[in-house]
Amino acid sequence: MSEILITLPKEKFRDLKGRDVGELLRTNLSRVEETLKAEREEFLRERTAKLEEKLREMEREIEELREFYEKALKDKELMMTERDRLRKENAELREKFEAKRRGLEGKVHET
């Protein structure tokens, strides 16, 4: 059996002097167990509350990320649409420019 060391104030030691400490421990053991159980339950309740708050915080962050991602997808779609429109416009302008240039080259060669 392992050794247990109990430190007491002088006054408490004097009160216990001459009494059966083993009997005191046996009679108070159930109260001590109940106290420890209550303290453990309180600790677990506090821990659970902290974890639940952390979970709510993480859920808010996930929702913010989801909203950001959805907005980014919409922006990407808009940018791709605009890019395609600009490509078409650029191709049309290039064709017009080439046509004008060919027209000008033809006039230059005629003179």
Index terms:
coiled coil, mainly alpha, 111 residues
Short description:
With 111 residues, the chain is an all-alpha fold. The protein has helices at residues 10-16, 21-110.
- The Rg value, from CA coordinates, equals 42 Å
Report the average pLDDT across residues. Answer: 91
Q: Helix share of residues?
A: over 70%
Helix run count: 2
Give the strand tally: 0
Low-confidence stretches: none
The rough form would be described as rod-shaped
Q: What order do the helices and strands follow?
A: HH
Structural class: mainly alpha
How far apart are the termini?
120 Å
Query: Number of folding domains?
Result: 1
Describe the structure.
By secondary structure, the protein is an all-alpha fold. It has one domain (20-109). It has 2 helices and no strands. The chain is rod-shaped. The mean pLDDT is 91. Residues 22-103 form a coiled coil. Keywords: Coiled coil.
SSE diagram, text form:
Layout: H1 10-16, H2 21-110
